[in-house]
Amino acid sequence: MRLVLVFLLAILLVNCDGPEPRRPVEVKSGSYYKESIERNKELLAVEEKLIQEIIQKDTANEYLSSPNGFWYYFETKNDTATYLPQTGDQVLFSYNLMTLDNDTIYTAEEIGTTSYVIDKQQLFPGIQNAIKLLKISEKASFLFPSPQAYGYQGDNNKIEPKTPLKSSVELHTIIIDNDSLN
Fold this sequence. Notes:
single chain, alpha+beta, six-stranded antiparallel sheet, two-stranded antiparallel sheet, Motility-assoc_PPIase_GldI
């Protein structure tokens, strides 16, 4: 009897060392993410090369490089206006979307005039930054690599994932936010 008690006590002590933490069935090395990053860098390099070829062929326009990673030229410049849209300002603008081969995806009429509060609403990244480069009544054409366009998802309609875009954007009106004046 004493032997049975000692045996049960030993089993009880051995089983009371706390819960065993769960271990992953498969250890991830992070190589998937590294490979994905490399693929995306290669894709961006190909898109930028294609955009540079378009710029070199278009000798009629003087392209500017944006610090945000896209290129543009002015179709209509307004030298009398001085104000650029700031965070919180509301703008009215129109734009179209095309492939880099000039195939129309959405016309400006299909999209319609868009009302947008700078940095307070969601649009694709390139257009958000493009609007900030325009003064009232200016129109410019922009070449966006896919990360500045609809990226790795597309628009779930006509724009496929990883599609670089060309867009002509015209800024109609700026309604200045009072905080922008300070």
